[in-house]
Amino acid sequence: MKIDVGLAIQELLFEHSDVLVPGLGGFTSTPQTATADYVQGVVLPPTKKIEFNPNLVMNDGVLVNYIQRQYTITAQEAMLEVDHFVENMTLSLGRREIVNIPKVGRLYKDFEHKIRFIPENTNLDASTFGLPPVQFSPVVRERFQPSQFAEKKKPAREATTAQVPANTPPPTSPSPTATENDLHRILPWLVLASAILLAISLFLLFRNDGKTHHQLPDKTRVNVKPQEQAQPPRENDSTTATLSGTEPEAAGAPEAGKENNTYVPGKGEAFIVVHSFGKESNALNFSKLLTSDGYTTDNRTYKDLYRVGIIFQYNSLTEIDSMKAVLGKKYKAGPKLFEELDE
Predict the structure, then answer these.
(1) Which of 132, 130, 131, 119 is nearest to 9 (CA)?
(2) 85 is in which domain, residue-wise?
(3) Which of 168, 174, 287, 300 is the most exposed place for a label (fewest CB within 10 A)?
(4) Average pLDDT along the chain, 343 residues, taken 10 residues at a time
(5) Residue 30 near residue 48, CB atoms below 8 Å
(6) pTM for the model
(7) Overall number of domains in the chain
(8) Closest to 215 (Cα-Cα) out of 74, 338, 311
(9) 121 lies in the same domain as 230
(10) Does 195 fall in a domain?
(11) Per-residue pLDDT tens digits for 96-105
């Protein structure tokens, strides 16, 4: 007599929520409510969701006792049949084969050597076993048409009107007022005017934005404030310096890190760009570095880049060149005036 352990597992799942196979794992079931498949147009009855847990390898005696009663054999013979079934399943899974348990599901090993389970679509819920899926289709409703409703109601109105005495004046429908007529005539023009105003506003807005980013100051000014234009030197200054025995300081680049942040009347002011960044966070970090070194910093956005540099006061253009050389050597950069970025 051939004993089918897989059939026994299937039949036990009708009666029990868990069926343990000693040495292999356990099949667990979870009740599922009825579901509607709108794609296929069917309503599925309540069923059980079957899952496999490879950690439930203990022997609770349910499977062995069922085989013993079903096939009228001893408990030892039933246990040997279960062990033989588990051994064949383990060998097949070790060879990366898919093992099928009829009407229950299929077992296989993945690339991590873990046992995976694919359940069948069999309804193992004894209370709803045999219930087939129910086909359904959406109900198509016609949209309500006011004209059709009026035509259907028209004979009834005529019958009602026929019963009214002849001396009764016919009902008059309310006529639209002059204000409503004027509003209907003016409304299209108001919408058109609003659209034109919106288009003009957007055009002016985007044109101003473009000018803000690309307009450059005059190169001859070199960022000199109007009220701070350099004044011509006075003859008395050189004479006074000679009589007092002191000579005027030679014009040159100030020492790095010793930049005077206060404005001195008679000096020009320039923005020297040290580095340009694509990210605002990098620009802020470099600006903090310049500030910590004693420079007066400034950040400007030009051509989608963040330009970071210093505000430098000078007496002559040679001082600007000297400061460029100092900044380039100190920060490994090619400093430029903000006006020279397009050159």
Answers:
(1) 119
(2) 5-135
(3) 174
(4) 88 91 92 84 87 89 92 92 93 92 92 91 80 78 64 53 54 62 83 92 76 45 44 42 38 41 62 91 92 92 90 90 90 88 73
(5) yes
(6) 0.39
(7) 2
(8) 338
(9) no
(10) no
(11) 999 999 989 9
